[in-house]
Amino acid sequence: MNSPDLLEVPELRHCALGLLTETSPTMKADAVRVLGQAWLGRDQPGGALRLDAQVRLAVTGTIPGRPAVPELVAPKLLQHRSMVTLEGRAAMIHALAHIEFNAINLALDVIWRFPAMPDDFYSDWLQVAVEEALHFSLLSAHLQTLGYAYGDFTAHNSLWEMAEKTQGDVLARIGLVPRTLEARGLDAAPPMRAKLAQAGDLAAAAILDIILRDEIGHVAIGNRWYGWLCMQRGLDPVAHYAALASQYKAPQLRGPFNLAARRAAGFSEQELAAL
Questions:
Q1: Does residue 55 belong to any structural domain of this protein?
Q2: Residue 118: strand, helix, or coil
Q3: Spatial separation of the C-alpha atoms in residues 46 and 85, rounded to whole Å
Q4: CA 42 to CA 71: how far, in whole Å?
């Protein structure tokens, strides 16, 4: 999908679905930012983008759109390379870029898939998609300075597998993707940043700082809407999370946990104690 064609049907959720089917990571990231600007300018003269929260959309392409590479393998089959080598650092940057590419798709999928939510819900997840697109672009550009490109290493598909399992319930999706799988990034970012800085890759460390800052906000958005949905359904958030984790076989979380980041993202002391 080319950016000029993005607003052929100027409706936010329709555009999100169209971008989700885009196979080029670069084009997807660029077009997401165009969509974000169109949304911010929707009330300005000439602004055409609108939101229809009630419409139920039908998929006409393959989702998620992804390139032919990287090859997707089971997590246990991923090769672990030493961070003291250029290839090892590139492999780590590649793994992070793949996570951010998946995160773009996850945010777009939430926008189109789940109707009848408040307008702010869709605006929040578009903001997430725009920031994930920036993260991917920063990591992809840095990877090229190391002599590699996105697709040069293998990757896994765990994030999207959970998205597929929770596609029938917005509460399960919000509870188990942003608040569980993506929240693990809050724990993982500081040690990864330290390794990159120790290896002398200060540019990569600076990108990790941006990602951690933004991801706290993304997990906070997940916490906000998880709480809202639980309130709408009369559910206890902590007890229901345990039920969701069991029903959908969410991975067991292991420390050490970045408690400061998790608090900043809106996790309650009761939730942190449950870790």
A1: no
A2: coil
A3: 52
A4: 39
- How far apart, in whole angstroms, are the C-alpha atoms of residue 5 and residue 206? 34
Length of the chain (residues) = 275
* Residue 12 near residue 49, CB atoms below 8 Å: yes
Number of domains in the chain: 1
Q: SS3 for 50?
A: strand
Distance CA 103, CA 175 (A): 15
**Residue among 184, 183, 273, 255 nearest 222 (CA):** 183
Burial of 33 (0-12, 13-18, 19+ CB in 10 A): middle
Tens-digit pLDDT profile for residues 250-273: 998 888 999 999 999 999 999 999
Residue type, 213: R
Q: How many secondary structure helices (H) and strands (E) does the chain include? A: 11, 0
Contacts of 254 (CB under 8 A, 6+ apart): none
Can you tell me the distance from the alpha carbon of 38 to that of 134, in angstroms, rounded to the nearest whole number?
16
Assigned token pair, 100: 């951010």
pLDDT digits (tens, 9 = 90+) for 90-141: 999 999 999 999 999 999 999 999 999 999 999 999 999 999 999 999 999 9
The CATH number assigned to the domain holding 163 equals 1.20.1260.10
Where in the sequence is the domain holding 240, given as residue range(s)?
A: 69-274
What's the CA gap between 13 and 229, in Å, rounded? 20
Integer Cα distance of 135 and 6 in angstroms: 21
Assess if residue 81 is contained within a domain. Answer: yes
CB 39 within 8 A of CB 126: yes
203: which residues sit within 8 A by CB, 6+ positions away?
A: 142, 145
